[in-house]
Amino acid sequence: MPRRSFFIIAILSMALAPAASQERTKRKGPVVRQADRILIESGDPGALFNFFAETLKLPVAWPLTEQQAYTSGSVSTGDIVLEMYRYGHQKEKPATARYTGLSFEPYPLEEALQELRIIGIPYEPPQPQVSILPDRTKGTAYTTVNIPSLSTPLLHVSLVEYSEQFLQVNVRRKQWGNRLLLNGGGPLGIESMHAIVLETVNHKNYETEWIRLLGKPDKKGYLHAVLGPAFHIIPGTKNSIQRIVLKVKALERAEAFLREQKLLGNKGNGEIFLEPSEVQGLHISLVEVPAD
After folding, report:
1. 10 φ, ψ to 5°?
2. Model's pTM, two decimal places?
3. Residue 261 and residue 76: Cα distance in Å, rounded?
4. What span, in angstroms and rounded, lies between the C-alpha atoms of 232 and 211?
5. Looking at the predicted structure, is the pLDDT value of residue 14 above 60?
6. Which end is more exposed in the chain, N or C (fewer Cβ atoms within 10 Å of the end residue's Cβ)?
7. Does residue 282 carry a pLDDT above 50?
């Protein structure tokens, strides 16, 4: 091949390389559909479970199960599951609780992992969890993928994809939402989870990682998955979930119930808080948000 041809090919390769590189790194779609579950470690998960299920009348996702090594139960806010758990059998008195985990429902996991590679978020190898399926055969119940750049010593963040043979999560989520609607959202008039507030000691860097996962914040600073609660990242003294924010039909009605039950905490800026000492130290607030 003539020397001139080699030169032209080299020039074309240099010109096309950036475009090819941009194509490889161009984001094609969202990684996650929505937040799926918040894990809450409690010294007395039974008492906390009863508070959410009996006092607040949230739909039970699965009943409290007590074993010698592990106790667990969960409720739903219609769009996300709150799972209370404890390792071991010894109850803590007085019991305390803390938010310890956050899992997301990905778009098909294989596509989500490809998107994570494109946007540069590292992840650990998928971990299939084998169990007995509803048809009594043995198979993969769900697959977990841990995301270390979003996780901290106080908060574990992961993707969880359920096998359709084990759980059709979208169908179940609609069922939980319908049950919440039918009972009027319980005495607080809960409609859904509005937001999950994350606090961090390194606000800029941590928020950047979340923006890479969820996209740019809105005008109020909230990050959004396609569905489910939004995320708000604030400066704090630790790296964890600071509080969950529940959307209610009428703040006045919710406040009246909390006051009557001696559960009312602080108020301010259109937001009221449950008294943390009455919910094992958890921070939970309520807002009334006009429909979009």
Report:
1. -65, -45
2. 0.86
3. 22
4. 11
5. no
6. C
7. yes
